[in-house]
């Protein structure tokens, strides 16, 4: 485990919702395939696979990704094999660290059924509700529509999965109101934020290239604000993310109030091992442990 | 994704394309596999943001080479790189090789010639007979064919070789038990059509990629019942798998 | 005029709200000082100075700007000398092209008074209402709060400036609803979009660096979507902008539905002369005039 | 803002700092003016995004030079540049020079020494007597003082010259009718204090900049009744103007 040597001498461990994690880093849902897990051993404090849905989804036709300045727009359309096949394959994600599972339905009932299904499995440490995927025309989108919808879904999921920590993943639009709603409906933590709805155009062909969600370093300042605003509003912990690219970025999100930090798009262009190593260097210089950093803005 | 900064061993122009080579200490490179490459990434820069996929052009004595066409900003910057570039380890699934299947036809369209060099080398090493057919827009891009001894060439403008597409330069593909092709997706579809359903028909596809290691689900191609990721299940597919 | 030679042979002119412009480019409000006008002669079809307010505003204490990946966050706080001093100095902005004036108040009455004051001046070709500046805690912010507020302000301004074209400048949050409201209240055109609320943190000092608005290339895909969504919803023309950096970007915004394109932050790091030259090259290759490009997605 | 790609004429290290020079065909450069500079911008890259402000270190025979300290990513990339850099034309308002005013004290703190070289050259050319006082953290950064003949040096760690700040190395500033200073804002405030209200007291300030040409209102310093832009009304200000 190449990471180990580079991160000795600092305390990277954090605790959230009664779960102890060896590092505060978590892969953002949909950005780490099981085929790539070998590359990141020791980096993440928990694993979080791509969102799963009640039935298999083929996803959107290509092109699905477009490069943008310091970022990318994706329109995957939640391609996944459906919750049953996903659960059959769950051991593939076992890296010896807690496993979080992301779910999305098109109705409140779907969400609740998914929560029940995945939370009853002993291998699942927590459930993340993807309330914000901008690529699903029906369903997903409606759940970012406002606090009332968020409250309804989270309430149903809370009842369906009473024993497992429940995270509500929110977009940046209206994030504070939605965060309050999710908290009061019983979410144990909030994930802030998902991609930002965006569009790319191919000027040469005069056609739309990809309509989807913007992610990557470009969105970092927007995500930092969302995390900061939410962390000052709610009492539950925050999983922060959006554009995290370096160890310094990890520190920034924790300072803004995040307890865990999600690394997504940047893992396509950097080795997450480096990000953790840089974060360790930051802590060493600051003379702090990871857990002390949350909200420690002066 | 882990990127390695490698020194450029050699850089030369093959007609309209650029060839760069670097020492790759890893395992032997299988024909048809690719790398994600860029001039530089973080901390030097986050823009252009994504690395670009390139097939291996060749691999000999521990030196790997890439052949590329300057299209946009990423390839322009690669073309300017003088000292180092950043590459991943070899990725994806390459060409299946079946020594018992018989004579092979290799078809390349434009910069799609890239993986045919290393494929031809491997076939020769295994004593497998093969013919190479290369199609280009014009004589400028066709110049790379000099690096493919014995290849038949076609150009769309007739300025070199046969006037027409790569299929116009090739005999009836049905006569080949094995057909390999790489080029624009439209050409691959035409090859699939012309090569018929029987025998080993392998196409190296070209899709926009985010990650290159299966993580983003960005690079999919349509198959029966859905989409599969061309970076891990491809970029080389059996023709019958592709729902084109 | 160095631009002239590089843009011959293409028709760059466009028409909006009865005003003919020599090029579709306009500086985004707050990004072109009168001191810098000399550098951009011939580039812009109209000039649009920084937002003016009823009284002088000192603006926010520094630091006011922070670099971000492919962008920047600013928190200027609408520093300006107040509308009276601004109008006295108006001739400084005379480049022989139409002059648009941006105004912002803290109340509906302020907005209306500003509209009356500036629109009565013959040198002013149109008025842009800055309904979206994220840096003004009272006033500005409330006007992005939703369609009802937008409708109220625009209605009052419409009455106060019945003879001059009125543009409503909107943020991306809830842009479609706000666009509908502005249109139905009588706005002659919509400017989409302003900066995105954002935060930067200095990890080393563990302190907030700048809390303000994100702009520059990073936001382009978000702005393109906002422009596209609005242009498909309203009948009035759109002034599109957000991250425009190259001639291709200008084309993308027009294809998405913009009639005029605003260049802001990129003018700090590029010569706008180049942007216009690249746009001319695009038109030449496409064999189109600028005016044909609006909404011409295939 | 218009950027010019200029070839690097020379590059050398002055202790902990880097000096690069380039041919500047424009007018004579006034001491205290600055440029926005970067290793490369669009179309090569949009990240790092903003150019960085640097005072002119020197200007002689049409060759301008910049002296800089590597702090973050932008200066690290400038430090790596081997062939070209991108710079604007000279910007801002430089030092006022009044030949009749009498003897001048020049105070520099750390990399704030930069504009004192060209200022000293100008003062000498006009026959104005002046003394140079330079303060640094340590002997490593103080090495640049070798390029300032006759300068008095102080270091915070005492490893070279006087132990203490630049003010510890200087005599009573009240005795100088003219005082010029450049360095961190905290040092400038101390100099303002020590130099008293009379005479010509000029401070070159350091604020974060967006544009460099007055457009963004980002680089302001506090003055009586508000803020003014240091890129057009400065970076050199009369001390009494600054509300510090
Ligand atoms: C498996 C595979 C192997 C390839 N092998 C080669 C090779 O050996 N030599 C070679 O010259 N080219 C090859 N290509 C195509 C090469 O990846 C594109 O030409 C390159 O990505 C264009 O980048 P750019 O910066 O020049 O263009 P830009 O238009 O600036 O690129 C913008 C974005 O679009 C993507 N993109 C644009 N065009 C293509 C395209 N045709 N295919 C895939 N992505 C694209 C880029 O990767 C980038 O993310 C291969 C593509 C794939 C998928
Ligand atoms: C008028 C003026 C003249 C200057 N002259 C010189 C000089 O001659 N030599 C020299 O070495 N330095 C000089 N500086 C300081 C120099 O601009 C900064 O050191 C440099 O911008 C840091 O950039 P970076 O990429 O290394 O740091 P980063 O921290 O990566 O920069 C991030 C952003 O913050 C800004 N920034 C960070 N630190 C400073 C700072 N101290 N001052 C202003 N902006 C900052 C950068 O410009 C950039 O926008 C001058 C500053 C000003 C305002
Ligand atoms: C290719 C791709 C696929 C994604 N798929 C999902 C998903 O299935 N579920 C989800 O909740 N978020 C998904 N996201 C959003 C990320 O989890 C993350 O919230 C977002 O990208 C912002 O973080 P980043 O900038 O670090 O990537 C996806 C993002 C990308 C780029
Ligand atoms: C430094 C700065 C100051 C700005 N000031 C104003 C302003 O006074 N009024 C306004 O309507 N918009 C203001 N804006 C927003 C711009 O006009 C523009 O809408 C936004 O920056 C997005 O475009 P861009 O990415 O091209 O800069 C300002 C932007 C910047 C960067
Ligand atoms: S490129 Fe990301 S899954 Fe293939
Ligand atoms: S740096 Fe933009 S106004 Fe001074």
Automatic annotation (TrEMBL), chains A, C:
Q: Does the keyword Flavoprotein apply?
A: yes
Check the record and name the Pfam families matching this protein: DHO_dh
Binding-site residues for substrate, renumbered to this chain: 50, 74-78, 130, 194-195
For this record, the Gene Ontology CC terms, alphabetical, are: cytoplasm
* Co-factor requirement: FMN
Its biological purpose is as follows: Catalyzes the conversion of dihydroorotate to orotate.
Under what name is this protein listed? Answer: Dihydroorotate dehydrogenase
Which classification does the entry list for the species? Answer: Bacteria, Bacillati, Actinomycetota, Rubrobacteria, Rubrobacterales
